[in-house]
Design brief:
homotetramer; 4-stranded antiparallel β-sheet; 13 strands
Chain lengths: 287, 287, 287, 287
């Protein structure tokens, strides 16, 4: 049996004439019907990026198409991925005490906004910090951490990633800095929400820093985790207006709203294959 | 002699597999190097829209390419345009008394932000309403209008469009309703700024209406002119936050800022071939 | 025993010289220390509105102050309220099937963002439409409704308002139009979220209307309920940018984010005595 | 002869009970009718700030009122100003080559949006860099500057401030760092537009820095000038959304729009006595 299925092809390579023609011809020959296509040519690096969503009448032909595409990819030196559109990815969620981002992601998942399967929730704080039953049937793991146990704790996280087959790790206000080792292992598949507008206020208590400086806007930044904390490729940012009358506590409150919507957008973009890394930056094909 | 030149191809047709492959192959064969490409498949109407910016090493080959494209266009039943990117279009500007949009457009033109050549300024009010020398060397025409003379006045506008070879008419706060006849002649090539957020407040004094209703945001709408005033395809909209403390005069002041930036964006999108009509709506390929 | 306590005084009356002097002198004499004060003089209606937050060292003096204020109120013909700042109000929450606003309000309550006590949740749909345990220990009532049973169902709602002592009713995506009778009983103490930017798209499926019209921004409106549906005094509005590529479903998704943040802001403003009715409009003293 | 005139009183002092009562009683006794009043109590510094706009039926009584207020000010240790609302201030405008902020301010002045009298325009570049007649009858001064002549050039600027009686100096994209000496002389009366979102990108070419970092929003900051460049008290900020597809040139273009509206707002707030300094921050009583 066969039915129309949508796939998403993302690719990047050094730009040269003929890429679009080759790929489009290949998809056409395979019976693919292109539904969305976006591309970007970076004039600085000379790199080409594309995201193409297409329907296949007979999904059994996808392996043949994959073979054809691998030939084109070899010819152009492409990095590429071909995914089922809407197939849920396995996601591991890390949190410390503040659960507004986590609760928001889980709600969006529950109503079908995010194509993911939460495989586990990990916190460095115990279950008693969270509302009973809040996480439903998702396994919860308490992995406490101290300076001394950090390496061992990260080992447990990494083991859990492998056991659960997690394809994405989301730091939903997880207030621990990942080691360079773990950050490296998760490169390109770990999203953090930085509770401030980067590069404005790095370090601890950014909203208090912002208040002290008297800025008129505060923001949040979602980015891929890299070895250098808070400095990974930015996926999404947003801000809200504040005034002199806002206390640091008001900023923290407004910040929660910005953080959860920025993180949710970034996770959705990732799950829908809308983000491609471009060195220390990202290409984000939003809709 | 030849040098790299950028062209913009826009096209629309009923969607079916193979369009992208055909066009991309054609451009590749002609030596075209695609720099930007955006497409949209409207699931409601089944129509396909695309904007492709590409470089040609030898601009003398463009006529041959045009011939090839016309063949593809015939095959797929495409509406299409192929324009030099950045070549200035001839623009006729209409204004009544409030000149904030006009002054803004002229400033942007002067510093190179808008690829246009203002061929004339027309007002139904006399030159004495404007600051002397404000329009530089652009011909200014005073075409007064009354109910009785409306047909004749529009005849003069239309004659001016033809004489000047204007490709675009911008109603930069021109407070006269165009007749169905003139609106029809200018279909798809006349942009109006409606000083309100449509469909919120139609009719006269929209900011006063908004004030009376106690809304918390006001906006402006740039749209193509059609026979049904204020109801043409929307190109761009924006809003600003207001409070109970804003008087109608404050709203008019804030409105000026919204109007001029919304109109300027819409005009830029048009001049860069970023807007394609889709029935009563638009497809806008922004950057 | 006594300790510093914060109170909020709100007042409105026909404006005439001396109001601020009288009130400020009275508060000073009572040992009140003004911490926040905002006022608005409506030049159209000649009405004066103020919100004053002040600390009392000895909260036992509040009754004496109340007596003094009632004298001033009589002199100036003031409507006024004096409330403990931060004292939770009893709130009844109504919902139909979509629970994103409800879940959001409850989360904000749980983490201390909203000074309220949810006394009951009422839905015209059964508990099986919601996630088990989602509402914790808050009583849930299923009050089904048909055209024939509407009067009786509203009678049950009104009885519940009285039993629970609810001071505020929030329609958190409750998709039933209240009768003029119930709307009248709840005047000034019932907040609705209209899932569209008013006055843009009234009626059913506003996001589909917006999509059909091709607008570039969508929004939501929180307002007090009055007899004329969707036309009560507006408390808060917000918008998000959309494009031609957004489907009606995308608009519904984006709409959820706007709706919940607009409703949450409006409820917070109400709970903190920041909203005063001004005829068919509101005065909102935000922070 | 007498007629209703509006005045604006701004004041700041260490907070203690009775300030509002004393001031309001004084204004009432003088026949003042309060039209707008905003106050802020800074819980961190314990300072009190207020802006009160009031009408006087007989403007001849203002000197008597001034005398009474000076008594209250002495009692509470207040810094205060009492200004005619809407009386134009003398403003000196400095610019380098990019004139978008300057042209915008002059347009707003011309149509009555800004209550100012531009007394002179100074540039470190010659008149030939600007459009002939652009500045109308406002005197233009070319004060070239090099490292060696900087002190002398600033001496000329300061002399011009004194000659013209300028009450405000606006750096409308004046790309020279003022010396600590001149910045000190102009403390609290010199507004700069920093063409970036502070504290994000200080230093040269901030839009290129932002592009290199891959941020998703860019902004601008208007602030009072202090000895430490780009670090003075912030008056206003705003941002716009950007994408990976925006070139540094696109950012510069979008930046122009943000810069001119942020600077215009800051200048208006200053001219309407809406800004009060609070150490290294500002209190801004917007409308």
């Amino acid at each position: 049996m066969s039915a129309t299925t949508r796939f998403v092809l993302t690719l990047s390579c050094i730009n040269r004439p003929g890429i679009v023609a080759a790929v489009a011809t290949c998809l056409f020959a395979a019976g693919g019907d292109i539904r969305e296509a976006q591309q970007f040519d970076d004039p600085e690096t000379g790199k080409f990026f594309a995201r193409i969503a297409f329907d296949l009448l007979d999904q059994n032909t996808v392996e043949a198409l994959r073979f054809e595409l691998s030939g084109i990819a070899a010819r152009f030196g492409m990095a590429w991925r071909l995914n089922d559109h809407g197939a849920p990815r396995r996601v591991l969620l890390l949190v410390s005490k503040f659960d507004h981002c986590l609760v928001d992601l889980l709600y969006r998942w529950r109503i079908g906004e995010l194509a993911m399967t939460p495989v586990a929730i990990v916190s460095n704080h115990g279950a008693e910090h969270f509302v009973e039953g809040e996480f439903g049937k998702i396994p919860f793991h308490h992995f406490p951490v101290t300076k001394e146990t950090k390496a061992a704790q990260e080992q447990k996280i990494w083991a859990l990633v492998q056991e659960t087959g997690a394809e994405l790790v989301v730091l939903a206000r997880y207030m621990q800095v990942l080691s360079d080792d773990l950050a490296g292992k998760l490169a390109g598949s770990c999203i953090n929400i930085h509770h401030s507008f980067l590069p404005g206020f790095k370090g601890a208590k950014p909203y208090h820093q912002a208040h002290g400086r008297g800025v008129k806007l505060i923001g949040a930044t979602a980015h891929y985790v890299t070895a250098a904390l808070d400095e990974g490729p930015i996926i999404e940012q947003d801000v809200e207006r504040i005034t002199h009358a806002d206390t640091p506590e008001d900023l923290v409150r407004k910040g929660r709203d910005i953080e959860r919507r920025v993180l949710a957008r970034a996770v959705r973009y990732h799950l829908e294959d809308r983000v491609i890394l471009n060195g220390g930056k990202t290409v984000v094909f939003t809709n």
